[in-house]
Design brief:
The chain is of the alpha+beta class. It folds into two domains: 3-91, Pleckstrin-homology domain (PH domain)/Phosphotyrosine-binding domain (PTB) (PH-domain like); 131-350, no CATH class. It is built from 14 helices and ten strands.
């Protein structure tokens, strides 16, 4: 049997058009032009690199050498494999391109689903076990950058807010101290950072209709803290970054992201599930302490008055927050229970930055 093939000697870039003839003990490789012998490979020293199911023409080699023999004709490969059973991989037929694409897509989907399962469910149970000192260090670093060019507010109002924050956290069984910071100005907002750090903007106190709304916002943010939402958000963002690398084979600069306070807040954007959990926990903690729990829904209602077109509803499934009307209905409570702040404390809070 003479088989057309290409021969690479492994030492130069030259390619020889050769014929291949198997004998009882050798695989003889010779030039097609003049039939001169190029190489004699002992049968028991030949092998196939790779396999025919993934490569169109897997090379035949002599063990221990650098030379390569490539036989392009599928029928000739099959005949050679029939004569030399240990070269059976030559007879394998590559799967169709469509089949390979489907197999690759299915494998990738399973891998992504498994990896995301680890990210999504693993963080739920693993994050609370991370050393609190590490979480606090990350939160402090981010806060220092965020507040670098802003004025912080101090005084009795800050003490009042910290006292209530820690009372709510203890009622939830949170084992660490909560630290509240107040930044002068706007927006009308509050947010949490890893390590039990909570940040309020003073405009929220000025815009709130009553102290129960501020207590409601505070209780909601404590909900994020006691469920470790800020740290979970970062861990999930990190996992998503790895997942993106895995899928695309590209480069994603997560650490660059973590060094920017504005970007880390984006990474910690609480999903709808986090927001619902924080809303429910906040209401439950206020009721547990016998405090007025109508402030959360009251704050949402005030938001709707100022912006009737709910951005969360408009964004639909792309929104990171549930629709405001839904949150109002879920947190609606009667105006019963004792006030969270005394008249003097509420005044101190309203004037904390003056």
């Amino acid at each position: 049997m003479t088989t057309p093939a290409r021969y690479y000697d492994g030492e130069t870039a030259r390619v020889l058009e050769v014929g291949v003839r198997p004998t009882a003990g050798e695989l003889i490789i010779f030039r097609l032009t003049d039939s001169s012998i190029v190489a004699r490979w002992p049968i028991n020293e030949t092998a196939v690199l790779g396999d025919g199911s993934h490569e169109g023409a897997p090379p035949v080699v002599r063990l221990g050498g650098e030379a390569r023999l490539v036989i392009e004709d599928p029928e000739q490969r099959r005949q050679l494999a029939a004569l030399m059973p240990h070269l059976g991989a030559l007879a394998e037929v590559p799967a169709s391109a469509g089949r390979r694409i489907v197999t690759l897509g299915a494998s990738l989907a399973v891998l992504v689903a498994a990896f995301w399962g680890v990210i999504d469910y693993g963080t739920e149970y693993a994050v609370p076990w991370l050393p609190h000192s590490l979480q606090a260090k990350l939160g402090e670093t981010v806060y220092e950058e965020l507040a670098a060019d802003k004025d912080e507010c101090h005084g009795k109002g800050l003490v009042v807010l910290n006292d209530l924050a820690n009372e709510l956290a203890r009622a939830a069984g949170y084992p660490h101290e909560v630290t509240v910071h107040i930044i002068d100005g706007g927006p009308v907002n509050a947010f949490t950072l890893p390590g039990g750090i909570l940040v309020f903007y003073s405009d929220l106190f000025e815009q709130a209709k009553n102290s129960s709304q501020v207590a409601g916002v505070l209780a909601h943010e404590i909900g994020h803290i006691v469920h470790y939402h800020p740290t979970k958000g970062i861990v999930r963002a990190y996992g998503l970054d790895l997942l993106t690398k895995l899928v695309s084979g590209g480069y994603s600069d997560l650490m660059g992201t973590l060094t920017s306070g504005g970007n880390i807040l984006l990474a910690m954007r609480n999903g709808r599930a986090f927001e619902r959990e924080a809303d429910g926990t906040g209401v439950a903690l206020l009721e547990k302490l016998g405090l007025r729990a109508d402030g959360i829904s009251g704050f949402f209602e005030q938001m709707m008055e100022k912006q009737p077109k709910d951005a969360a509803s408009t964004a639909g499934i792309w929104s990171s927050h549930p629709p405001t009307q839904e949150r109002i209905a879920a947190t609606k409570r009667p105006p019963t229970g004792r006030p969270a702040f005394s008249t003097a404390d509420w005044k101190a809070l309203q004037e904390v930055c003056k």
